């Protein structure tokens, strides 16, 4: 049997190679690479957003802590003030009672 030329290659072998080439689809490969690159960039942006949000939360917590300390000091000051007023009021009432007994 003589060797087959390009035009005489058995049809089954050619069809198999053509089907394999059709399945390869370079555009799909490029789209996958592009998609994975975009997913990677989105993940990076999401991480950056989380870091920025954590930093903002840290700053907000620091400010909130300072505000809470000031509010607690104000409340403590008001308690002391009401305690003084109450002591003065009791002292006056005792003086009035003593005056009424005499």
How many helical stretches?
2
Count of all domains = 1
Query: How much is the average pLDDT?
Result: 82
- Report the C-alpha radius of gyration, rounded: 43 Å
Gap from first CA to last CA: 147 Å
Helical fraction: over 70%
Largest sheet: none
Our estimate of the beta-strand percent is under 5%
Shape verdict: rod-shaped
Number of strands: 0
Uncertain spans: none
Structural class by helix and strand composition:
mainly alpha
The string of secondary-structure elements, in order, is: HH
Structure explained in plain terms:
With 102 residues, the protein is mostly helical. The chain has one domain (10-101). The chain has two helices and no strands. The protein is rod-shaped, with a radius of gyration of 43 Å.
Summary keywords:
102 residues, mainly alpha, 2 helices, 88% helix
State the gist of this model.
This protein is an all-alpha fold and 102 residues long.
Layout of strands and helices, then pairs:
Layout: H1 11-24, H2 26-101
């Amino acid at each position: 049997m003589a060797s087959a030329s390009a035009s005489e290659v058995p049809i089954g072998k050619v069809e198999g190679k053509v089907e394999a080439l059709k399945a390869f689809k370079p555009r799909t490969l490029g789209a996958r690479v592009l998609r994975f690159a975009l997913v990677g960039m989105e993940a990076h942006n999401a991480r950056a957003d989380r870091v920025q949000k954590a930093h903002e939360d840290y700053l907000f917590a620091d400010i909130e802590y300072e505000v809470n300390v000031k509010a607690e000091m104000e409340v403590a000051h008001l308690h002391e003030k009401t305690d003084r007023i109450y002591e003065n009021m009791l002292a006056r009432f005792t003086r009035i009672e003593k005056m009424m007994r005499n």
